[in-house]
Write a structure and sequence with these properties.
Helix content is 40%, strand content 16%. The chain contains ten helices and eight strands. The protein is extended, with a radius of gyration of 30 Å. The protein starts with a helix and ends with a helix. The N terminus is likely disordered.
Length: 343
């Protein structure tokens, strides 16, 4: 068995990707004949025990899922039919499932992250300025002046990624997910999957962004070619090392905002376990990146904190020395002036 097949098999065993079926070469025996048993959590009575499928049906190896409900038995059916038919389980609608074959890790990860991207609304608030003529009282007279007013307005940026993808001739999935660095995608996958397992509902609002996509971005953002999302100075396509994540849990924006803050706090507490962190915290809260990357080290690394503390210390010492030097110079001038007067 190749290392790729072993790694893929391990992934399919360890993650919740319903329908992640191993694809083995024709005629090759599967190294481990022990089936992966689906872990199903449900309260059942003795009369509602699930029966095994008929031997003639092919057995499928699927990942474990957590059901949210048990379909009721049709009470109008004959007693013998109701007793023989197994109860169907349905997975929670809040969990991402990819019902397809999983020939390798990259396919599973890309599809999972793409599903996360698709389900997240692309909405935010941006600051807009407006100039209006107002009347004010100045020196006892009423005069008209122009004032600038700023306000936060809703911004729908759903159109931006499709436009950027079309511009370079790629599909949306190839652009948004395929443009990210492979190692970062694996870390992001494990982080978001663990967040789902913790009862959260993460979604991705932004993945890879090239220079053009960064240029048309709104609000707080890096320079066009310096974005860690995939700016040309960071390596461009295939080297994106950042994503923006929010929660999709909630019927209103206010509810989703509360859930999103909970998601960010969870990432702060648990993300390092999977290699993911928020470099800017409240300065740019949705932004996540690898903790072993340049961006995180620059803004959150221990060495940076120590260097910042040392810089502040040196500045305080320099300011104190300048203050003492100024006092000495003032005393000398005062003494010289007094000596001249007495002479």
């Amino acid at each position: 068995m190749s290392s790729q097949q072993f790694t893929t098999r391990a992934l399919c065993r360890s993650v919740v990707l319903a329908g992640c079926v191993m694809a083995w070469p024709a005629g090759a025996a599967e190294p481990d004949a022990t089936p992966v048993v689906a872990e199903v959590t449900a309260s059942t009575t003795t009369e509602q025990m699930m029966t095994q499928p008929p031997p003639s049906e092919p057995a499928l190896t699927t990942a474990s899922i957590t059901p949210s409900a048990v379909l009721p038995v049709d009470e109008t059916a004959p007693p013998s039919t109701a007793a023989e038919a197994p109860h169907s389980m349905v997975a929670s609608v809040d969990r991402i499932e990819i019902l397809d074959e999983c020939p390798d890790i990259d396919v599973c990860v890309d599809r999972y992250l793409w599903a996360m991207y698709e389900r997240a609304p692309k909405l935010d608030k941006i600051r807009e300025t407006e100039r209006r003529v107002v009347t004010i009282k100045r020196k006892g007279r009423m005069v008209k002046v122009t004032r600038t007013f700023a306000k936060l307005v809703d911004n729908d940026f759903t159109w931006k990624d499709p436009k950027a993808a079309e511009r370079i001739g790629r599909s949306m999935m190839e652009y948004v997910i395929g443009g990210m660095d492979r190692s970062f995608k694996l870390k992001l996958f494990h982080t978001l999957h663990a967040a789902e397992a913790a009862g959260l509902a993460p979604g991705i609002t932004s993945g890879f962004r090239d220079d053009y996509r960064q240029e048309i971005a709104s609000g707080l953002k890096a320079a066009t070619n310096r974005s860690y999302h995939g700016g040309s100075l960071r390596g461009g396509y295939g080297h994106g090392l950042a994503a923006d994540i929010v929660s999709v849990n909630g019927a209103t924006r206010a509810q989703r905002w509360v859930a999103t803050e909970q998601l960010w706090k969870w990432v702060d507490a648990n993300g390092k376990t999977f290699g993911i962190g928020r470099p800017y915290l409240d300065h740019d809260p949705p932004h996540v990146g690898p903790v072993d990357g340049e961006e995180y080290a620059k803004h959150r690394g221990a060495a940076v904190k120590v260097a910042a503390a040392e810089t502040k210390k040196h500045k305080r010492i320099a300011a104190r020395q300048e203050h003492h030097a100024a006092k000495r110079a003032k005393a000398i001038r005062a003494s010289a002036l007094a000596s001249r007067r007495t002479g």
